[in-house]
Design brief:
Layout (H helix, E strand, L loop, with lengths): L16 H4 L21 H4 L10 H13 L21 H7 L2 H4 L11 H18 L3 E3 L5 H18 L6 E5 L5 H8 L3 E5 L9 H7 L4 E7 L11 H10 L3 E5 L19 E3 L2 H4 L14 E3 L11 E5 L2 E5 L16 H37 L15 E3 L11 H10 L6 E2 L9 E3 L7 H20 L1 H5 L12 H6 L6
Parallel strand pairs: 2-3, 2-4, 4-5, 5-6
Antiparallel strand pairs: 1-7, 6-7, 8-9, 10-12, 11-12
Helix pairs in contact: 4-12, 6-12, 7-8, 9-10, 12-14
The structure holds pyridoxal-5'-phosphate (PLP).
Pyridoxal-5'-phosphate binds next to helix 7.
């Protein structure tokens, strides 16, 4: 096997700045004084904040070393399923940092904010067009927040029809945020079992759907990386009983510019701009979870909404049926600018190509690792594929052991033990931005690990070996975190 991208080089230890400081060191020099010295009033002086004294070299090395402990999409492949950790073109960062955008204040009068308003207006239109829906709000700050907003819209719509209903169907492959968002809206989640092909069967929906059920929350493609092929039939059943179809669009990276969600019967859909539309994520944000709806739900979208009047853009609160505000001011503008820049850069063909490549890359991994790892649903996949550790069971090697070992080979571990319908799941999403060479290296590394599982399972139990920290005691780390050093 070729040399891997694994971590064998220098990884520096680094103490806290307080441990590093030496009295009298400074990181700056001021010009020679040309006025008389005046001692500071003793009462004003106090003890100070107790910051350590450091040289410039101390400070630069400290932060550079800490940054080198991070793993990111900028340093290597990050095949975290369901998260779409793709490379985000740096030009989009640049656009969002343009002073006119970065310095725009949300309280600035609207005539002085035309650029930002225009960008928001157009981005709403682009997302509406890409998804095939009729209207979009950019206000929610993340996917889960979009789900909450979407469910509030469903609730408001059904209430306006006379009865908001009490239940909602949620498939067993759903992300945990789906039932959580439904429950925040007061809906009780009714679990819906996927069939042996890993998708929803219309019969199962028909059995559960009634006039007290608000509808269904579907993720498409679902978290097994499979396209919900019966979604149209499912939507027809839900609609016939007066319910609505919510689509979790976190996996839009597989179908951008290819699938028209409205044609599939979707009524409400959220996107994750920080997954599909070029905002780096991880570490908690900021993100953006726009919600796209069909015409009949548009009156319920959050206010204020950006409207265009005689070539000028305005914020309008004049939507009496709106569910109200869901975010301070107008949402996370910086994320919207990156998405706008990304969409304009890619164009319709580029977006479509990105999805096609994401699917191709995942299919390539699926086919190359099939047989080495157990593939519970052996069917064409979308942008991610799900294996399990079943074939490694005889060697007492688990999914956790194998992905810890993968760090020694220089890859961020994929998503594991999710979705819950696959015991010991390993969920791999390469994204469209990985080259064939890097994917081949990943495949070879996974195969080498499978060989190690047979020949030397102890090695995997003790992994990782080459990282800065060995395997963590995750229980103690969660219960008794030591936050210094
Ligand atoms: C990431 C994700 C979410 C939640 O999105 P956040 O932006 O993290 O709140 C919901 N559903 C699926 C399928 C996801 O992958």
């Amino acid at each position: 096997m070729k040399e891997t991208a694994g971590t064998t080089g220098l990884i520096f230890n680094e103490p806290l700045l307080w441990e590093k400081g030496k009295t009298g060191r400074t990181a700056f020099s001021l010009p020679r004084r040309d006025v008389k010295e005046h001692p500071i009033d003793k009462n004003l002086k106090g003890d100070g904040p107790g910051f350590p004294d450091l040289s410039e070299v101390d400070i630069v090395r400290h932060y550079i070393r800490l940054s080198q402990w991070n793993f990111s999409v900028d340093s290597g492949m990050y095949p975290l399923g369901s998260c779409t950790m793709k490379y985000n073109p740096k030009t989009n960062e640049r656009q969002s940092a343009l002073p006119g955008f970065a310095m725009a204040h949300p309280l600035l009068p609207q005539p002085l904010s035309q650029g930002v308003l225009k960008l928001m207006f157009e981005l709403e239109q682009y997302l509406t067009e890409i998804t095939g829906m009729d209207a979009t709000t950019l206000q929610p700050a993340a996917g889960a927040h979009g789900e909450l907003t979407g469910m509030l819209i469903v609730y408001a719509y059904l209430k306006s029809k006379g009865n908001p209903r009490t239940k909602i169907l949620v498939p067993d492959t759903a992300h945990g945020t789906n039932p959580a968002s439904a429950s925040l809206c007061g809906y009780r989640s009714i679990p819906l079992k996927s069939n042996e092909r890993g998708v929803i069967s219309p019969q199962a929906v028909d059995d559960l759907m009634d006039e007290d059920t608000a509808g269904i929350m579907v993720t498409n493609p679902n978290t097994l990386g499979l396209f919900e092929e019966n979604i149209k039939a499912v939507a027809d059943i839900v609609h016939a009983k007066g319910g609505l179809v919510y689509c979790d669009g976190a996996n839009m990276n597989a179908v951008m510019g290819i699938v028209n969600m409205s044609d599939l019967g979707v009524d409400v859909l959220h996107l994750n701009l920080h997954k599909t539309f070029s905002t780096p994520h991880g570490g908690g944000g900021p993100g953006s979870g726009p919600v796209c709806v069909r015409k009949n739900l548009e009156p319920f979208l959050p206010v204020p909404r950006v409207i265009s009047k005689k070539g000028k853009y305005e914020l309008s609160e004049d939507f009496p049926d709106s569910i109200g505000k869901v975010h301070a001011f107008y949402g996370n503008i910086g994320v919207m600018i990156r998405a706008y820049s990304y969409i304009r850069n890619m164009g319709p063909d580029g977006l479509k190509k990105a999805s096609q490549l994401a699917v191709l890359n995942a299919a390539y991994i699926k086919d190359n690792l099939k047989g080495t790892f157990h593939l519970p649903y052996d069917r064409p996949c979308m942008h991610e594929c799900v294996f399990s550790d079943k074939l490694q069971e005889p060697y007492r090697v688990t999914t956790l052991d194998m992905v810890k070992r993968l760090m020694d080979y220089g890859f961020h571990p994929p998503t594991i033990y999710f979705p819950l319908v696959v015991p010991g799941a390993i969920m791999i999403e390469p994204t469209e931005t990985e080259s064939k060479e890097d994917i081949d290296l990943f495949v070879e590394s996974m195969k080498a690990i499978a060989r190690e599982a047979q020949e030397n399972p102890e090695l995997l139990h003790a992994a990782p070996q080459k990282t800065k920290r060995r395997r963590l005691d995750e229980t103690s780390a969660a219960r008794k975190p030591r936050l210094s050093g």
